[in-house]
Amino acid sequence: MLRFTPILLALVYALVMYRVSVWRTHRELDAKSTELADARLKHLTDQLAAALGLARIPVYIYEIDPVNGLAAPDGRIFITRGFYRKYRNGEVTGEEMASVIAHELGHVALGHARRRMLDFSGQNALRTALIMVLGRIVPVAGVWIANALTGLLAARLSRGDEYEADEYAAALLTKAGIGVGPQKSLFAKLEELTQSRAGVSPAWLMSHPRTEERIAALDRLEARWGAQS
Ligand SMILES: [Zn+2]
């Protein structure tokens, strides 16, 4: 029993950290966000809502600069002020913003938003446990191996999620009459932004798979759906 006490403690610690992090995230989002009030975007999100048979889609502006979109486990979608600014000054179209909202809706609908919060604490617990076990066998390299293993696992999990959310968004945008085009053109724009200003790559792209692979996956979907109709 004594042998397992450190691992048990690590798990309890991870569980407490998980609750605290969920609470802090929600408090931060509540304090720093306002409901989206742009008429053009509202019209587009209403199109998405109609395609889903919902009354409305709860979209909020989150007051931070990095270009990002996120989904809270409770189903609220957040677009950052930085992203919204790009839309307001014409760098990003309303349809392209709708494609981000559709992608984030995919994370909610497919259960990713909830699982991600869990993943985060699960990964911490796994990392801590691995460091304890491996650290005894190979003192210094053990920590490095533990970090590498958990990182690899996390990347694996999230890549799959991104393609699934893209696919969900593509289907929803098609059903809503907006189409897959804006999804692809936005990827290209964000990619360009990454290249023209090194070091300021949008957070939304960094946490996602390679742009050309995502566009290629969408092309395959379109070809498949086109063949069916
Ligand atoms: Zn995503």
Automatic annotation (TrEMBL):
Cofactors demanded by this protein: Zn(2+)
Entries under InterPro entries matching the protein: Mito/Outer_Membr_Metalloprot, Peptidase_M48
CDD domains to which the protein is assigned, alphabetical: M48C_Oma1_like
UniProt domain Peptidase M48: residue ranges: 37-221
Pfam families to which the protein is assigned, alphabetical: Peptidase_M48 (PF01435)
Keyword Hydrolase appears in the UniProt entry: yes
GO BP terms, alphabetized: proteolysis involved in protein catabolic process
UniProt remark on cofactor binding: Binds 1 zinc ion per subunit.
Signal peptide: none
Family of this protein: Belongs to the peptidase M48 family.
Family annotation (PANTHER family): METALLOENDOPEPTIDASE OMA1, METALLOENDOPEPTIDASE OMA1, MITOCHONDRIAL
Protein name per the record: M48 family metallopeptidase
